[in-house]
Design brief:
The chain is an alpha/beta fold. It has 16 helices and 13 strands. β9, α7 and β10 form a beta-alpha-beta unit.
Length: 464
């Protein structure tokens, strides 16, 4: 389609993890993949430079506290396959990537189940300072039981109880980020020997069912104060939480109807919560395999498919579903089982499958017609641009979270082949917007909007 027919600029993020391979297990075995270098800072420097050259909005880092240990009753298969195992802490890679880039944003998953909100607030403020306002936080409460056991708990909390806790957690971190320090508290007056005015720094006092916290935020106000807030829960409870708190919501679904319905529901819930529908950007998980021609792209897809590790993939999906798929035959149908893991994962393969009967073997199919693939695009730049535009127009999406294939080769192809096509159609930016990550995404300034609950609850002194 010509550029005149579309005005909406896509958001694009590179989906990554500090591990040999993630969404598509086994990619580290591909000769073009550098995933085995995930322990090296140079690997992340190279990744960041590729993404900034392509004007990506951000690198979004997934993370998990605990290995995928549901399949076969332990993490053996995940470890064998390098499927989200081993896994390093992504927050420690970000300052280096920020140092070698100027505009690229960084979304990072951090689990609120294992860290007190006072500590989390400090960590995110520090990252916001070190990136000059380019940090976002993907709010998760965890779904892997091994993380609970490793940190001295008998089991992870119940699914809905995790969201109850998360609601209070957000209340506490908002108080530290938004209420504690007034904007002009830091004066840096050398002559008077005053760095900060104590009268403009206000202690937090919180006492609730899950958390007690009294003290002063250890960081002065960062460029964004509150990091850009991401959320990926698509269960009914997750959508309610996202509508209340999130600015960017990641959805996973392999049909337009599924994505459209969830996006519309989240935006409707946001409006009911007193926010605007355009306060939230909706981003879908997407695999992109692009080549100069459709035939070359299909050949590349076949080549990549040969490196997919079935056991490693099933170890990931078992953890997500809370179901040990090692106990099933590949041709067994997938049935809805309520678990304490990621409820939306099994729900979209059963309840939301529109009569489609998925089998266990379908979980590891490297193709669009798969319950785990999300949006799956293979083709020439023109073919993929047509598909992306169709998804956006038919679902209300704002952009895509590009799943990891052999990297950074896959992202380099997106940058060199697909980006020019998107830009020629007016679908993608040709330069970065100045300012923080929040301003780059929404163009409305560096701080949270007035309708966000974190701002609505602020005392008058901090809102002025």
């Amino acid at each position: 389609m010509p550029a005149s027919q579309t005005a909406k600029k896509l958001m694009l993020n590179a989906f990554h993890m500090c591990t040999p391979s993630q969404s598509w297990a086994g990619m580290w075995t591909h000769p073009e993949d550098k995933g085995v270098n995930y322990t090296s800072l140079q690997y992340y420097v190279e990744l960041a430079k590729v993404c900034e050259r392509g004007l990506f909005d951000s690198i979004f880092f997934a993370d998990s506290i605990g290995l995928m240990d549901k399949y076969g009753g332990g993490p053996s298969e995940a470890l064998r396959a390098g499927a989200m195992a081993p896994m390093n802490d992504p927050t420690l890679t970000i300052p280096t990537m920020a140092y070698v880039t100027e505009h690229l944003g960084f979304g990072v998953t951090a689990n609120l189940s294992y860290e007190h909100p006072f500590i989390m607030a400090r960590r995110m403020s520090t990252l916001d300072h070190l990136t000059n306002g380019r940090i976002g936080w993907n709010i998760v409460a965890g779904f892997v039981n091994s993380g609970a056991l490793a940190t001295g708990r008998a089991a992870i909390r119940d699914h809905d109880e995790r969201y109850d806790m998360a609601e209070e957690y957000m209340d506490v971190v908002y108080k530290y980020w938004e209420q504690c320090w007034e904007d002009d508290a830091v004066v840096r007056d050398r002559e008077r020997r005053i760095y900060a005015d104590p009268a403009k720094v206000h202690p937090v006092a919180h006492a609730g069912p899950h958390f007690t916290s009294q003290g002063v935020h250890m960081c002065e106000p960062s460029p964004q104060r509150t990091p850009v807030l991401y959320q990926a829960g698509t269960s009914a409870r997750g959508r309610s939480f996202a509508a209340q708190h999130a600015e960017c919501v990641f959805l996973t679904g392999n049909t337009r109807k599924m994505i459209r319905d969830h996006a519309a529901d989240i935006r409707a819930r946001a409006v009911a919560a007193g926010r605007s529908a355009d306060d939230i950007a909706i981003i879908a998980g997407c695999t992109i395999i692009v080549a100069p021609t459709d035939a070359e792209a299909q050949a590349r897809c076949e080549d990549i498919r040969r490196h997919l590790d079935v056991g490693g993939s099933l170890s990931i999906f078992s953890a997500l579903a809370g179901i040990d798929f090692s106990k099933y035959d590949p041709d067994d149908p997938i049935e809805y089982i309520r678990s304490n893991a990621t409820q939306s994962f099994i729900e979209r393969m059963t309840v939301l499958a529109q009569g489609k009967k998925w089998r266990v073997r379908d979980l590891t199919a490297f193709q669009q017609d798969s319950p785990t693939a999300g949006v799956f695009l293979v083709g020439s730049p023109a073919t993929i641009a047509d598909e992306m535009q169709s998804w956006v127009e038919e679902t209300g999406l704002d952009g895509f979270n590009i799943y990891r294939t052999p990297e950074p080769a896959g992202l380099e192809r997106v940058v060199d082949l697909l980006m020019p096509e998107l830009q020629s159609r007016g679908m993608y930016k040709t330069e970065y917007t100045k300012g923080t990550l929040r301003n780059k995404i929404f163009g409305k300034g560096d701080r949270l909007g007035a309708s966000h609950p974190a701002k609505a609850a602020m005392p008058a002194r901090a809102a002025e």
